[in-house]
Specification:
- The complex is a heterodimer of chains A (251) and B (428).
- Chain A is of the alpha/beta class and 251 residues long.
- In chain A, 40% of the residues lie in helices and 28% in strands.
- Chain A has one domain: 3-Layer(aba) Sandwich (Rossmann fold).
- Chain A contains 10 helices and 12 strands.
- In chain A, the strands form 3 sheets. In chain A, strands 6-9-10-3-11-12 form a 6-stranded mixed sheet, sandwiched between helices. A 4-stranded antiparallel sheet of chain A has the order 2-1-4-5.
- The N and C termini of chain B lie far apart (48 Å).
- Chain B has one domain.
- Chain B has 428 residues and is α/β, with parallel strands linked by helices.
- Classes of the chains: A alpha/beta (251), B alpha/beta (428).
């Protein structure tokens, strides 16, 4: 599904190398987690994959189902099936959540040469999916993320994910700013989307999200590289001992 | 001295060959007084402080500069709205194209008929609100309009008008020079909505005087454009009585020169005045100026000014807005925001927000910003699959939302939003 080879990235504005050769291969239907200390390059990886401006790829490659991601516009990557759940979802005053969702769903369908979803079908689907995430009609009507609590914003991200049905989902610190109940709700939403054809890359600081979204493989990232990979037990090791042991072990 | 002489010369040149339209004595006197005001104040030049950002030369010139006609491919605005149509072609009332004024259920008369009537209610408003609005800032072009206005209508509303009145302007002559003066009186507890649509003339001066009596409500929605070469100056003077509401919204497309002045006075307690505007302009030959002056002269008044401008390819936007709170106008709630979305480095927004407050228990705020499209929001939308241009347009509408929300009637708002989307789709 997602193949990253030797990916090197620096900031466009300053001559600062952030990713220094990242290798990552995610098979269909699997859940990978990336953990790592602040400044290790986790969020940069998610931004570079989804096509945010401000980064320069200086080496390596990233493909989704064999197609070169790095050469595409962000909207093309989305239409291909890549989705990034933002750490800080953006507020867009004056644009209704429903309008936004419908514009996005239909833009992707159009890009893939599919028919647009009718208003009635869209409404039916969005209501069903919103219900399971405890997103009420009022929240759907409001402008995108405006006046939403931290938990509501993250649930709204998962609703977008559910509506867009991507194959490769990246969750960037989705647990940040969530209390236990909100985290459980978000995790349930993600788990409901797990399927054979859909993969996840969960970026997090903490083990606790991984109690709810159980990963197949855990990677530790530090200083722009993946320095260690293993099973779910690796996350527990981090939880118990911090990163210091792993970092010194690798060094 | 040189400046004073220039102003006098400009004024005398403009007035050299004019004849004041004649009617009943009160009308003739109102026009003569206005002419005297023009001479006293003299017409503006670009060196006047109040015209610092907008050059009035083409508005004060003897002849109207030529303006190409604009053929629109869109259906007329508010086509689906049941409304009373009053049509002006190049500033001249067209009775055949208009609805029968007698059958509208409202008191509507052509200005020339009203001004030929010896005793008429319009006597207390025509030129009176304009003259009152000359202080503390002189508005000589408004006085010129009162003196010379060749057409217009007067409307008196005594109950709740069942449908809006729509002034529909058509531009058929490339050198037409229109001076229109309209008067509206909303009696106590009465309500009406006035719509204005269409390009009016190559050059036009439009003046609207509105008196809203106690508990009355006046709602004004106006669309200017999409003609490119017009030169326009409009004035709205309103006197807003106790417990009454005045709301005005203007959407402007294109135009080499548009200056919209709005002068409102809250004279009774608990009055409300909202004035808002959106303009969209593309290119160096776009210049739009909103100049607003709101005076609070009573208790508990609420005023809002919400102006948003989308400017690209070297377009210029101007905002001069003032809230004056007089002594004793306690508990005034005044709000003013003017913002521009600059879609490139060549466009410019010039803003002069002012507050002048002589009461000690008021809440007034003002803000002004210029900014580009929010790159983070743009990326957010694109990451969801929305193509770049579509995402930019969504964010542009998002920027305009606060002003568009000032339109109370959802049907009218939807019509205007459609036109805006059309404009944005054409200007990528």
């Amino acid at each position: 599904m997602l193949e990253i080879k030797g990916l090197e990235v620096k900031l466009e504005e300053e001559d600062k190398q952030i990713l220094k050769g990242v290798d990552l291969s995610i098979a269909p239907g699997t859940v990978h987690a990336i953990m790592g200390p602040n400044g290790s390059g986790k969020s940069t990886l998610s931004y570079v994959l989804s096509g945010k401006d401000g980064y320069e790829v200086t080496g390596g490659s990233a493909t989704l189902d064999g197609e070169d991601l790095l050469d595409m516009e962000p909207e093309e990557r989305a239409a291909l099936g890549l989705f990034l759940a933002f750490q800080y979802p953006v507020e867009i005053p004056g644009v209704g959540n429903m309008t936004f969702l419908r514009t996005a769903v239909n833009a992707q369908r159009k890009a893939r040469g599919e028919d647009e979803l009718s208003a009635a079908d869209f409404l039916k689907e969005v209501r069903e999916k919103a219900k399971s995430l405890k997103i009420d009609a009022e929240m759907l009507k409001r402008p995108v993320n405006v006046g939403f609590s931290g938990g509501e914003k993250k649930r709204n991200e998962i609703l977008q994910m559910a509506m867009l049905e991507p194959k490769m989902c990246i969750l960037d610190e989705t647990d940040s700013g969530l209390d236990v109940d909100a985290m459980k709700l978000v995790a349930d939403g993600v788990n409901a989307l797990r399927s054979e054809g859909r993969s996840f890359l969960v970026i997090t600081h903490y083990q606790r999200l991984l109690d709810h979204i159980q990963p197949d493989i855990v990677h530790i990232m530090a200083n722009g590289r993946i320095i260690k990979s293993g099973g779910p037990e690796l996350a527990l090791e981090v939880e118990n001992n911090g990163y210091a042991d792993i970092l010194s072990e690798v060094a | 001295m040189a400046l004073a002489q220039l102003k006098i010369d400009t004024t005398e040149a403009r007035l050299a060959d004019v004849d004041l339209p004649q009617g009943a004595a009160w009308g003739n006197a109102a026009r003569a007084d206005a002419l005297a005001r023009v001479r006293l104040m003299a017409l503006p030049t670009k060196r006047d402080e109040y015209w610092k950002y907008t050059d009035p030369t083409s508005l004060t010139a003897v002849d109207a500069p030529e303006a190409a006609l604009f053929a629109s491919d869109e259906a007329p605005l508010f086509d689906a709205v049941d409304r009373v149509k009053i049509v002006f072609v190049d500033g001249v009332f067209d009775a055949d194209a208009s609805d029968d004024l007698e059958a509208t259920g409202l008191e509507i008369e052509r200005l020339s008929d009203a001004m030929a009537t010896d005793i008429h209610w319009a006597k207390d408003i025509y030129g009176v609100l304009e003259a009152h609005g000359q202080k503390p800032v002189a508005r000589p072009l408004a006085a010129l309009n009162t003196a010379l206005a060749t057409d217009g209508v007067v409307i008196r509303v005594t109950g709740k008008a069942t449908k809006p009145v729509n002034f529909i302007y058509l531009h058929n002559d490339t050198t037409s020079d229109a001076i229109l003066h309209n008067v509206v009186k909303v009696e106590a507890g009465a309500e009406m909505t006035l719509l204005e649509t269409g390009p009016a003339a190559a050059r036009f001066s439009k003046l609207l005087e509105v008196e809203v009596a106690e508990g009355g409500k006046f709602n004004h929605v106006r669309a200017q454009g999409r003609d490119h070469e017009r030169r326009a100056v409009t004035h709205c003077f309103a006197r807003i009585a106790a417990d009454s509401v005045f709301k005005s919204f203007t959407l402007t497309f294109n135009g080499v020169l548009t200056r919209n002045e709005c002068v409102l006075e809250l004279v009774g307690d608990d009055a409300v005045a909202h004035v808002a505007g959106v303009c969209v302009g593309d290119g160096k030959d776009f210049h739009h100026d909103d100049t607003v002056f709101i005076t609070h002269d009573a208790l508990n008044g609420e005023s809002r000014q919400v102006f948003k401008k989308v400017l690209r390819n070297g377009a210029t936007g101007v905002f001069q807005g003032k809230i004056l709170v007089k002594e004793g106008a306690q508990k005034t709630d005044g709000y003013q925001i003017s913002q521009s979305l600059l879609l490139d480095d060549d466009s410019q927004f010039l803003a002069k927000p002012e507050l002048e407050i002589y009461a000690d228990d008021v809440a007034c705020s003002h803000g002004s910003t210029s900014g580009a499209i929010d790159e983070t929001a743009l990326f957010y939308l694109r990451s969801r699959g929305v193509p770049h241009d579509e995402a930019r347009n969504l964010l542009t509408l998002s920027f305009l939302a606060e002003a568009l929300e000032e339109i109370e009637d959802e049907t009218l708002a939807e019509d205007l939003r459609d036109r805006l989307e059309g404009w944005l789709a054409r200007h990528r």
